[in-house]
Amino acid sequence: MVLSWLHLESLENLETLWAPVLCKLATSLSSLLMIVAVSFWCSGKGGWGLCLLASYINVYLGLKAMDRHLKVLLQERGRLGRFRFATKQELANFDDVCSVCLQRMTLARVTPCRHLFHGDCLRRSLKDRSTCPMCKQDLWC
C-alpha cells in the first residue's frame, strides 16, 4: 500500500483507514467529472438516463461508502483527540523511546499524567482499557 510505504507519521498508523476514504473520494470525483463531460456530449442525443444511472452508482453510492469509512476513521482519530502532541523539547527530555513498543519516537502524544507514547500505541492501548499504559491512571476523568 502506497500510504504505508510513505511512512507518514502524521497519519499515526491509520493508513488502512485513510486509504479507502481517499480512494472512494478520488473515484467519485473522477466519475463526476466524466459524467459532466459525457452529459455535455450527450445533451442532444438523449443519453440522460445513462448519465443519471452512472451518477447514482458511481458518485452517490461511492460517496455513501466513503462516508462509512470516514466515520470509522474519525472515531479512531477521536480516541487520540484529547491528547496533545509532544514538543521536540519534551521528546528530548523524556528519552525518545515509546514504552509500549520500545521504538524511537519522533512524533508522540502526551497523556495527562505526562507520559509519552506513539499515537498508534496509545490508541491501541485505549481500545483495551481507559488507563495509562505506564502508571494505570484513569485517562477519561
TrEMBL record:
Keyword Metal-binding applies: yes
Coiled coil residues, start to end: none
One GO CC annotation: endomembrane system
Annotated signal sequence range: none
Keywords assigned by UniProt, alphabetized: Metal-binding, Receptor, Zinc, Zinc-finger
InterPro entries the record matches: HRD1_E3_ubiq-ligases, Znf_RING, Znf_RING/FYVE/PHD
Keyword Metal-binding belongs to the record: yes
Record-given protein name: Putative autocrine motility factor receptor
Species of the source: Ixodes ricinus (Common tick)
Phylogenetic classification of the source organism: Eukaryota, Metazoa, Ecdysozoa, Arthropoda, Chelicerata
